[in-house]
Design goal:
It contains six helices and five strands, in the order βαβαβββαααα. By secondary structure, the protein is α/β, with parallel strands linked by helices.
């Protein structure tokens, strides 16, 4: 289960619980009992800025949010299901351009890296997904695409 929060949205402990509830509802909706195994569930929440209040509340609930990689925080101690919070502004720009372009502050370097990667996609589904990411990024960062890139660098 992935919950992507708009750059304008906050992320609270209630958002965390709601996303976990969606994951458990998905598990319970199998056509047969245990069709979707509990150990196959993971939850990822994506946010542009560091969610200090969320991490503080997780601690107050007896859990932890430990940074495993730059911008990737594993949450434990509240639910048995693995969950993580990804903070796009803290991600390594060389490894995660596809997430970094989904902010209102996308950098030209991230956009160019994403476009280079997307050009290599050959599968129709991959190309559609890249186009969806690109459309969201352009709508949030029109100035970067219009003013900061030459026509040959555009998708």
């Amino acid at each position: 289960m992935v919950e992507y929060k708009s750059p304008d949205d906050g992320i609270t402990i209630d958002d965390y619980y709601k996303t976990m509830a969606y994951a458990y509802l998905y598990k319970a909706m199998g056509r047969t009992v245990d069709e979707i195994l509990g150990d196959e569930l993971t939850v990822t929440m994506v946010r542009d800025t560091h969610p200090k209040a969320l991490f503080r509340r997780i601690g107050e609930y007896g859990g932890t949010a430990e940074e495993k990689y730059p911008g990737v925080y594993h949450v434990s101690g509240i639910f048995n299901t693995p969950s993580q919070v990804i903070v796009t502004s803290e991600l390594d720009p060389h490894l995660h351009s596809s997430l970094r372009v989904l902010t209102k502050r996308a950098r030209i370097e991230d956009v160019k890296a994403f476009l280079r990667m997307a050009r290599e996609f050959t599968e129709p589904g991959d190309r559609r997904n890249a186009d969806a990411v690109l459309q969201l990024s352009v709508s949030a960062n029109n100035g970067v695409y219009e003013g900061g890139m030459s026509p040959c660098a555009r998708h």
